[in-house]
Design a protein that fits this description.
Structural class: alpha/beta
Radius of gyration: 19 Å
Oligomer: single chain
Shape: globular
Strand content: 15-25%
Number of strands: 9
CATH architecture: Alpha-Beta Complex
Number of domains: 1
Bound molecules: guanosine-5'-diphosphate, magnesium ion
Order of helices and strands: EHEHEHEHEEHEHHEEH
CATH superfamily: Spore Coat Polysaccharide Biosynthesis Protein SpsA, Chain A
Length: 251
């Protein structure tokens, strides 16, 4: 019989939790939201947070830098100016891949994307989806507090993109997502051209065309709690045009 070693070896080891998920959060003037959001995300020991800040004049970057000094699961990618959402995500995805993340999430900082849905997105990815979209336009999903114009732009944009691209996704402009690592490794991220809402459409289209499985889980999307939207006509126009460019293989 083997002798049982005495001493500390016998005490149970704390289960070490691997942080296998990185949540990429692009920010521009989100100082009123970002600290609370990061705290909520860190409650899951499997999560790291990577904020991609475009030199927000309201000091969002400095707040995150301070949190990052105290907590190794918080990262800051500070860019020199407002370079747009699409390039912010791409930079964040590359960093998350470098850090070894298996599940790479993206979400807005303004609480339109509620962190309570993260486990639902993750569960769908664990069940086999390569890309999971938090969706306003599947049963159980929806928006609250939106004016008619914004509802029409969002609904109409999704119908437009879905029809032209034959994309089997109800909410292709949604930016609350979970990518499996293999998707972002395989797609040519340097080829992605869109920078606003069209970025989400382009990524969904490229993911679908590469043969990956896309799933949608319902989310309720309220309007931002505080701060201002950065939506602009230019962003909507880019989406209208880029859908056709994607359709004809021009981008
Ligand atoms: N890094 C970076 N983040 C941005 C930029 N534009 C918007 N964001 C962030 O992207 C998210 C979505 O933007 P938001 O203004 O809420 O768009 P809306 O929900 O369509 O009104 C928020 O977290 C913003 O702070 C940008 O140019 N660069
Ligand atoms: Mg928003």
């Amino acid at each position: 019989m083997l002798a049982v070693p005495a001493g500390p070896q016998l005490s149970p080891r704390p289960a070490s939790v691997v942080a296998d998920c990185t949540v990429v959060v692009p920010t521009y003037n989100e100082a009123e939201n970002i600290t609370q959001l990061i705290q909520l995300l860190l409650a899951d020991p499997r999560c790291r947070v990577l904020v991609v800040d475009d030199a927000s004049p309201d000091g969002t970057g400095a707040l995150v830098a301070e949190l990052a000094r105290a907590e190794p699961r918080v990262g800051l990618l500070a860019r020199p100016g407002k370079l747009g959402l699409g390039t912010a995500y791409i930079a964040g995805f590359r960093r998350a891949l470098d850090e070894g993340a298996e599940y790479i999430f993206e979400m807005d900082a303004d609480f339109s994307h509620d962190p309570r849905y993260l486990p639902d997105l993750r569960a769908a990815a664990e069940a086999g989806a390569d890309l999971v979209i938090g969706s306003r336009y599947v049963p159980g999903g929806g928006t609250t507090d939106w004016g008619l114009v914004r509802q029409i732009i969002s609904r109409g944009g999704n119908l437009y993109a879905g029809l032209i691209l034959a994309l089997p996704v109800a909410d292709a402009t949604g930016g609350f997502r979970c990518y499996r690592r293999r998707v972002l490794e395989q797609l040519d991220l340097a080829a992605v051209r869109s920078n606003g809402y069209a970025f989400q459409i382009e990524m969904a289209y490229r993911t679908h065309r590469a043969g990956f499985r896309i799933a949608e889980v319902p989310i309720i999307f309220p309007d931002r709690r505080v701060g201002r939207s950065k939506m602009s006509r230019r962003i909507v126009f880019e989406a209208l045009i880029n859908v056709w460019k994607l359709r004809f293989g021009l981008i």
